[in-house]
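Researcher: Here's the sequence for the chain we discussed earlier.
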Amino acid sequence: MKTFIQAAAIMSLLAAAPLVAAENDGRIYEMRVYYAAPGKLDELNARYRDHTVKLFEKHGITNVAYLTPIDNKENKLIYFVSYPSFEARKASWDAFFKDPDWLKARADSEKDGKLLTKVENLFLQTTDYSPALKIDAVGNRVFELRTYLMTPGNLPAINERFRSHTMKLFEKHGMTNLIYWNMTTDQPSAKTELKPDNTLVYLLAHKSQEAGLASFGAFRQDPEWLKVRGASEEKAGGSLTLPQAGGVQSIYCTPTDYSPLK
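Model: Thanks. This is the structure I predict for it:
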C-alpha cells in the first residue's frame, strides 16, 4: 500500500509539472519575411524549392519551416532557419551569396523582374520553457505564428505565465506547442517596435484554422485561464501585452510543399 501511495504521489507531481525544455537549445534562429512582387510568389517558391533550400544546406544553414499565410494579401513567404552561432550565420551567408549556383539561380529567376519588394528579419533564441523543436513532416495541420508585444517591463512576467500555466492550458484545449522564442540582443538595424526586451514569438500547430479558432475560444473561457490572467495582470498593474492593435498578432499559415516542418 505504501509503495502504491508513493507512486500515485509521484504521478500527481509529474502531471502538475510545467511543460518545459531543459534549457535554451543554444541555436540562433532567424525569421525572414519576404514580400513577393505582384504575381511573383509562385516563382519565389519555385526558386526556394528547386535551388535555395539545397544551397542553404550546402552552406550549413538549417532549414526549419517555410510558411505562407492563409490570408496572404501581402504575398508573403515567412520562413525560419537556424545556425549554431552568429559567427556561423555570417560565414554561411557569405559563402551562399558567392556560390555560382546561387548567382545563376537568382539571375535566371529574375530575367523578367525582381521577385521581392521587401525583406524583414528577426534573430531569435528559444526560451527556457520551449519544447525541443521536432522538425518533422507530420502533415495535415496548419501553423499559427503568434507575436506578443509587451507593455514596459513585462516580458519576464509573460514568460513566467507561459512557463507555469499557458502552455499546459493550450495542450488541454487541443493546441500543440512547437517552439517559443524571445529576440536576441543582436538585431537588424531597421526600426521596429519589436525589441529584445518586449517581444515573444511562438508557433502552434492545429488540425485546421477552424480548429485553432475553436481551441482559442475554449481557452479564453477556461476558468483556470481567467484566474491566471487576472492574477498576473493584478501583479503587473495592467495588461502584460499592449492593448492596442498589434499587441497580439496571429497569422495562420500553411507549410509550403518544400518545408521540412509540415
